[in-house]
């Protein structure tokens, strides 16, 4: 069975880029969310194997959402996505329980490497 992934990003084109990379590499995108609060709801509903989570979003940012998701499931696997120059936020995310991070603009091989490593596939 394909690994089920939830994509969280406030930019539709970023979600589309990740969905495209994942689909071409045999992963199943089970849902998308455009902010942290949606991400939490979708996580509870879909129980994906992994979440790609943008850090900077309206409503609730990715780090706050990560912390809430970890309360729901301590074993949740989350990979943070950030633009260049957000190292402090990335460190916060790792401390909050993120498994890895990928930098925008996305490079397909790095996205697949991070996801494969996190899922152990």
From TrEMBL:
PTM-bearing positions, type 4-aspartylphosphate: 54
Entries under InterPro entries matching the protein: CheY-like_superfamily, Sig_transdc_resp-reg_receiver, ST_Response_Regulator
UniProt keyword list: Phosphoprotein
Domain of life: Bacteria
Keyword Cytoplasm on entry: no
Protein's UniProt keywords contain Phosphoprotein: yes
Stretches assigned to the Response regulatory domain: 4-119
Coiled coil stretches, renumbered: none
Pfam families in UniProt: Response_reg
Record-given protein name: Two-component system chemotaxis response regulator CheY
Source species: Paenibacillus forsythiae
